[in-house]
Amino acid sequence: MNKNNDMHHTIPKEQLRNKSSWFDAMLGRVRTDEWDNFYENVPTKLGSKFDNNEKLHGLLKSLYKIYCGIVGPFHILPDFLILAPGACGTTSMYELYLRSNEHMLHTNSINWYKVLFPSVFTKKIRSVVGKKTLTCDGTGSYILDPHAPKRIKKIIPDVKFVVMLRNPVDRTLSHYKRRIRNKKEKRSFEEAIEYEQNHFEKEFQEYKKNESVVAFYPPTSYLARSRYFEYIENWLRYFPKEQFLFINSNDYFKDPLKEYNRILEFLGLAPHHPNIKGKRGISPAALFDDIVTKPETIEFLRNYFQPWNEKLFNLIGVKYDWK
Q1: Model confidence pLDDT, tens digit, residues 252-262
Q2: CA pseudo-torsion sign 141, 216, 41, 70
Q3: What is the average per-residue pLDDT within 262-268?
Q4: Domain map of the chain by residue range?
Q5: CA-CA distance, 322 to 224, in Å (whole number)?
Q6: What CATH number belongs to 53-316?
């Protein structure tokens, strides 16, 4: 983890009390007993530990790249990707449900990326004992990056996509409240929205220029992240609609098992009814009770997103009951 994107700089220390141990990292084990657990793999933990030592950090990074170059070709790429702009239920779907399925294995170059996934030998051994092997990647930044579809098309053109979309009013407010709690936002919601409407487009164009380097989507993007039509239209320029399964996150929150099995059917897997006991990705009900939103602001959001929602429904051929 580098200094430009260090989770420890943006998440309060009290929330990191549940981060994964070294043993968890080595086993690739994600704890699900608490809603605010944080998983770090071995390279990330090493990078965090030696982040302040530039020489050692640089040496470890170089050695890891060499390692990835050697073993990367023996690893597989994901069979499907989970796309969502954040605050749409992806963490609980991925960590609680998809990880419970025996057919799923989870774990700066293409080889660096491939090392995050199981080896071809693991897949072969599992096939011998009659187990199907599917791998998944779920990263919130993919769906927002205008260059991501083109890159993914080159590497895994037949990959499938599970897209989770929440009522944009709910998602926008949840996004804001999480940033308040994580001490990334200090302005009132109305002030933040006003800033976004005046500055987002310029910041986005700057972000869009950095196609070949690590760039970060504008942080004040509460409205933009909920204009689903804009970025899904871009993804459908590169991939046929048949490779996408669209999930209404509000339906998932009401009946997660039903939506989980829709995903399994889409992936060609048998129905599965796990006994879910974890809390990963499920926020406590009263977590944001002290953050109040004005009724007129909610009405503004409903009116703002209504035309964007209609464009989305016409694009994907599905209409959700978002009010």
Answers
A1: 999 999 999 99
A2: positive
A3: 97
A4: 53-316
A5: 17
A6: 3.40.50.300
Q: What are phi and psi of 316, to 5 degrees?
A: -95, -10
Q: 3-class DSSP state for residue 313?
A: helix
Question: What angle do helix axes 295-316 and 168-181 make, rounded to 10 degrees?
Answer: 120
**CA separation (Å) from 175 to 67, 98, 160, 218?**
37, 24, 26, 13
Nearest to 199 by CA among 215, 183, 218, 186: 218
Q: Kindly give the residue spans of alpha helices, DSSP state H, lying in 139-270.
A: 148-155, 168-181, 189-209, 228-235, 249-254, 256-266
Q: Give me the pLDDT at residue 52, please.
A: 83
Encoding tokens for residue 169? 């009013």
Token pair for residue 95? Answer: 């960590």
- The model's pTM is 0.88
Query: Among residues 159, 71, 74, 81, which one has the least CA distance to residue 124?
Result: 74
**Measuring CA to CA, which residue among 225, 226, 221 is closest to residue 192?**
221
Structure tokens, 295: 């009724």
- Cβ contacts of 297 within 8 Å, gap of 6 or more: 189, 190, 193
